[in-house]
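User: My collaborator sent over this chain with a note saying "see what the structure looks like." That's all I know about it. Can you take a look?
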Amino acid sequence: MLRSSAFACFARFGALLFLGGTLSCGGGTPVSIDGLSEGELSGTVIKGPVADASVTVFKLDGRLSRGTRLGEARTDEAGAFTIRVGSYNGPLAIVATSGLYTDEAGGTPVSLGARELVTILPAYRSGSNVTGIRVTPVSSIAAGLATFHVQQGAGVEEAVSEAFRHVNTHFGDVDWRTTAAADLTVEGVTTMTPGARAGLVLAALSQQAAGIAAEAGVSVALVNGASLGAALAADAAADGVLDGAGPSGTLRQGSVALDAWTARAGLAQALATFVSGPRNRSTLRLGDVRTMVNAMSTSADAYLFGNTPGTVIDVDPPEVSWLKPAPDSGVSGTAPLEVRATDASGLQSFRFTAPASLVALQPSIEGTSALLTGTLDVSALPDGPLAIQVVAEDKRGNITSSTANVIVSNRGPSISVSAPSDGTTVRGQVLLTATASAQQGVVQRLELRDPPPGVGADTLAAADSFAAQWDTTKAREGSTSSCSAPWTPTARRPTFP
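Assistant: Without extra context I'll predict from the sequence alone. Here is the result:
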């Protein structure tokens, strides 16, 4: 395992002196060795696993500037690498470029290109075999912080240890030197383990970058989780805090400026959005990550963010209320529609997603409330269940979907009145009997609607049968319509097999 006291991360954009070195291939098979006492470094490159990345080991001087190249390898499909190094004592930088990973937010392949993911060993000893090295965007941020403080006079091991102490706490409360980030886009993650928290942070970077790309009108090839991580590392190296200020002014992703809340409120909001979205295949939900989100957004760590305060963010999605028709009710012909969404942060959008006939309807949005209205025409649909679906998004990017299930009942049950027969003259005590049969599903209730005076209670337990005594002496003489009726579609839901 990687010893936490011996490792840290480094992001440095200085000149590279290619003065020879030791080469090996990915997966641990060496090509050649240069030095008197060889050692071995192995680990993974993760922004999602980065396959076929170029991983290079550099000597570092006392100011964490890069020197001679000591070894090189390429990662395998899982992002794993193994590199042999020759005789050397001192700090090392492990730098990954190129290679492909799958963007967690969008599912598309993304190339690192010339962007770097970096980590360091602050006190490597000749001949050591070091395993479990993690090269990630967060390790690059820690490296940028350590670089700044070393160049301000701090010792290498002290600066690296302090940098990781702060980034570990802020970015999920995990040790980014040793923790293997879990992939939340596949099934299997069920609890908030350190690996799950690390995976959430990396997925949130991609989700945040996707939002920035959409705002800037650029593709994920230009703005993505790796590019955002590299920008944050440059931010850290420029002045030792994450405030959006780079060496040449405000840092940007596309046209969108970074600031002191990018790695706090922005990242926390993106984390909540990812967990609530379709790319999250774990069982973790908003309730599981709320503590992590709140800690990230409200952080006031002066080492990381200077004197700027944290902020509480809204991570709760809009609430949807189905007004017409009521869920689980029956509908026939045409029926009015009315659905409302509310959110304290205001509504960004509200729309029907099913059935297709409703998709074009536009909402009325006023502040914290939005209303969708229209007419649902089911006259041409077969009887049976129908799902009406809406999606609402608030101004913070929180999204919720809601479904109302109704029953289309254009064809009612058929009724057979067995006694008395139509046109019969009755007097005294008369037995009324009827049965009903469903054209689809089953009959839930058969009842006498608007009965004349003197009709008693139904004496049969069966839902599709009716029998009652009628004392005709209590009714007015003359023609009487005794209408038996089955379950009324708009009042009760039938049972379908």
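A starting point for your reply to your collaborator: The chain has three domains: 1-314, 319-408, 414-486.
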